[in-house]
Task: structure prediction
Amino acid sequence: MVFDDFSEERIDKYLTAQFPDVSRSQIRRLINEGHVLINGIPPRKSGQLLEKGDRVEITFPPPIPLDLIAEDIPLEIIHEDKNVLVINKPAGMVVHPAAGHHAGTLVHAILAHVPDLEGIGGVQRPGIVHRLDKDTSGIIMVAKNQAAHVWLQRQFKSRDMDKIYLALVDGHPTTSEGRIIAPIYRDRSNRQKMAIAPEGKGKYAETDYEVIRNYHSHTMLRVHPVTGRTHQIRVHLSSIRIPIVGDKIYGLKNPSVPIGRHFLHAAEIDIRLPGEKQRTKFRAELPPELELVLDGLIKED
Result:
């Protein structure tokens, strides 16, 4: 590539514009590792200025294998193509390896399902576009390559997509539909929890809900998280005194019905797949253990 602009420009900024599917931090790492040349010479720093006529060369090394052992764990695949996986995650499965969860995660399962994974950010790993809590079941999207990861992440960041959850809550909301707007931050007394933040603190968070069905002591809700904060739905519903059934952190310590998890399920996602102009909607039905809970409830007339 030949830099043909009359005004000077930083090499990292120039290459980020040339390769929009590669983040600026990755470009800087490539520069620092000697994979970029200006007129045949490695730049002194990632911010070195280009001048008109400079010849730029960049080499993308093969992805580094992730230091994890693939595990042949069954996955319910809703959709798969060369760019993405759409998976119906069961409750109880952790998404990422972490302290106390060094095996059996969704990432371990994906590495076995896609052994020739192209990788994200120069590492042979799946691109987890969004998260689901361990005990939340339902749809999760995974990018197989860097371009797909960037494409999907942009939609999540701009909120140009929709996610729908199903939640059974204790009690009844005051209205059949509503919007909760309350900032969220990490609980000051318990770093494992999130909480509603005081005015001027925390991150903006917005959740819409509507009643699907009323039961004697419970309500089934269709929930649309407009933003995507950690534990957002659980914290917001608890804040208006309709906590999710089975949520021992933000709800009742002793569940109001026999259940081994919280009743929250990622039921739908409506998003544009890489290269597509129109959205595609994916759905995941309620798992049997949640259907069983509903069967045991008394409906209101």
Q: What stands out?
A: The CA atoms of residues 15 and 224 lie 38 Å apart. The chain has a mean pLDDT of 89. The helical segments are 11-18, 24-32, 106-113, 146-158, 232-239, 288-295. The longest helix spans residues 146-158.
